[in-house]
Amino acid sequence: MLRRLILRQVSAAAAESKFRIHGFDQRRGIHSRNKKAMEYVAKGWSAIKEVDRVIDYCELNDRRLIPLLRGAKENFELALEADNLNTHARFWLSKLHLKYHVPGACKAIGAALLVEAADMGNADAQYELGCRLRVENDHVQSDQQAFHYIENAVDQLHPGALYLLGIVYLTGDCVKQDMDSAVWCFHRASEKGHAGAAIAYGSLLLRGVQVPESLTRMNAVGVPPPKRCRENMDMNPLELAKEQFQVAARAGCDLGLKWLQRLEQEEKLLLNQEDNEYASA
Prior knowledge:
By secondary structure, this protein is mainly alpha-helical.
């Protein structure tokens, strides 16, 4: 009896050990596939960035771009072969089919890949799909679907989606107009360096729009913001607006520079007026 019990325990321990080893090997295999897929994605992304760098100086279907585009397409396809659940490869491959003149491009395939990537939770794909549904379709159902995907991207704090949702709340398009929500969206997008959101946020501050308490008291995850952020919130609206325009300027936005120059000129005029009033008194 004792011998049978010992043998049973040894057998169970061996089975558990085998299961653990198998599970470890399986996880290691998944990690290896993910790593390989991301290497392919990085290569494809680099090729696309090179195309974007020169595409403004040549025709869209310039034959000199074909090797880069073909290489990018092959790398994204290899990434999906290595890891079919890689949403980054699926998203960028969809962009190749939809935007670029790559050999073998197909709009239908691109649209299907984009929807798949969005449904799998890729924030870039959700934002891209939401924008396309709003722009390319005039149906009410498409607007509702677009808002759904944009909100999903906002949940992941995608800067473009935050900016777009801020515009929606600001204008009252599809939703009830909500200035506090608009400012919140612009603020979060500006924190991530979005130039358009920074311009919109700064402009609203100059118009006298108040910063909502949700920004001054709690941050996005429900905890008090850092001391530096609280100090920034206590600044006067003009200084806050200047900070936003500086964000836009650092992002390469000419409008941000123009706003900064305009504010500087107005400050000089006010100083001159004060000096003249003081001199006349």
